[in-house]
Write a structure and sequence with these properties.
The protein has two helices and 14 strands; from the N terminus they run ββαββαββββββββββ. The protein is mainly β. The chain has a seven-stranded mixed beta sheet. Strand 6 and strand 7 form a beta hairpin. The radius of gyration is 29 Å and the shape is elongated. It starts with a strand and ends in a 25-residue tail after the last strand.
């Protein structure tokens, strides 16, 4: 997991009217909680928060509060406006760099499978896995190399190469990706209808 920085202010007034003023000033209400410490209501700059979100869910955030208090946190959740996509609220969770955390790590498919050149199709079953590790030892993503796959080959979670410092919590038998044969739909045709020969008036058949 990589580290980013974010400034935050301790929020005084709460409620709908206070939140409207925050949004008008380009700020977002937030909450900081966890590690058996007191919850703190915060405000953060909307553009800075959007930048942090773009860094990915597994970013470790070095947060500086208005009184120069430092917190190490992760972005646990955020809410978006259903129509215009603006950030409405954010939840930050305290962590310790010396204690393991549980994280969901995305899987990125890389390479081109030889079997694709002979008509095979990559069938992706899994997009992320859950692990436990120290924050700085948890990866931002796992690359799944498919450059060796032939038709019928499968990559499971157990095939991911990682150090002993990372514990996989997801089922290791889960399929990540397989190379399948394309299904060709066969359309059955019914028996041909008999040709009807019409008799001409005043003539022969």
């Amino acid at each position: 997991m990589h580290q980013v920085e974010l400034n935050a202010s301790i929020r005084g007034k709460k409620g709908k009217e206070a939140n409207k003023k925050l949004k008008a000033n380009g700020a977002v209400p937030a909450i900081l909680y966890g590690r058996e410490k007191e919850n703190i209501s915060l405000t953060v700059n909307a553009k800075e928060l959007a930048r942090v979100i773009s860094e990915g869910e597994n970013a470790i955030i070095s947060m500086t509060l208005t009184d120069n208090m430092q917190e190490t946190v992760v972005l646990k959740d955020w809410q978006l406006h259903p129509y215009n996509g603006t950030i409405l609220h954010a939840d930050f969770y305290r962590i310790s760099l010396e204690e393991s955390i549980v994280a969901k790590v995305p899987l990125e498919i890389v390479g081109t499978a030889p079997g694709q050149k002979t008509g095979g199709i990559l069938d992706i079953h899994l997009r992320e896995i859950e692990i436990r590790a120290l924050p700085l030892q948890a990866p931002d993503k796992f690359e799944i190399n498919v450059s060796h796959l032939e038709i019928g080959d499968i990559i499971h979670v157990r095939d991911i190469q990682m150090g002993e410092e990372i514990e996989i919590l997801s089922d290791t038998e889960l399929v990540i990706v397989t190379l399948i044969v394309p299904v060709v739909e066969v359309v059955e045709q019914g028996p041909a209808e008999p040709e009807i020969v019409k008799k001409k008036k005043g003539g022969k058949k």
